[in-house]
Every structure is written in C-alpha cells, then in structure tokens.
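An instance as discussed:

___
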Amino acid sequence: MAKVLFILAKEGFRDEEFLVPAEILQNKGHQIFVASNTNKGNKAIGADGAEVIVDVSLDEVNVKDYDMIVFVGGPGALENLNNEKSYRIARETVENKKHLAAICISPTILAQSGVLKNKKATVWSSASYKESIEILKKNGAEYVDEPVVVEDGGYLITANGPKAAKEFGNALSRALEE
C-alpha cells in the first residue's frame, strides 16, 4: 500500500481537510504520515482543535520516501507553509513523478513553487477574497471553479476547501489505485 505524507501547519490547519481524506486513505490500507513546520514528536493543532503528532519536520522531508504528498489548508497554512521549504517539496514531488495534492488555500503554495504552470487547478476563494485565484493565474495555472480538479492522470490534485474534503479524499484514493 501507498505511503502518504500530509503537510500541516503547526497551528491552524483545517481539521476536516486532513482528518477526512486521511481516514478514507487509511480505510483503503494506505499508511499516513504527517509533516509540519515543527519538530518530530510535537503536535500540530487544527483550527478546530484537532491534535496530530508530527512524524517529520519540513526540513527533513525526503520526497522519495512517499508515494503522495498532500498540502492541507486552513488559516495557518500560508503563515506556516508558504515558504521555500514547501516549494522544494512540491518541486521534488513532481520531479520524482510522485502524486502531489493540495486543498483549500494550499494550491497557492503549489502555484508559487512553479508546479502549476500550464495546469488546471482550483483553490479556496470567497466573495470578499479572490486573491488566491489571482495567485494561481499569476503563476501560470488555469483556474477551474470546481470542488476538485484532477490533472496529469491523478498526479496533480487540487480541491477548494473543507466542503470538498470527502471528494478530495476519494480522488486521492482513486489516484493511488490507478
């Protein structure tokens, strides 16, 4: 079975964007690991209070150890994960032909790493916040207003937020089965 690494902000990840897809994948027999911008053994704390033990720090992520890398969104994602460490992980995931996914605001991290250039993707936005769509477009992505967008035969999956968590989890599962 596949090894899936979820990347969470140490504070303020969106609980259901991790918990729902992780449960779907675990129920299919896949192994779940967690990376964050804190040290191994520390807890990452969700926006709604979920506590998750971190298996590896962002600094120590070796993409080759995993079959899929998933960036989780939430109010803490950009503050904690929008940096060169995350960009390196995204680029190496694509270079190593591993599955790469992001939900909520996190597709902007993928866009800024350069991996969404000439790719279809979705991202969280609202009536009063459209900047995330502009970040995708500015970095060469084609924004699609759908809950989940699958590109490159399942090697690139984006979702637009917590309401899409189950559909996102199912898309991740399908991608690993193909």
Notes: The mean pLDDT is 97. The first helix runs from residue 15 to 27. The domain at 3-177 is CATH 3.40.50.880 (Rossmann fold). Residues 8 and 36 are 5 Å apart (CA to CA).
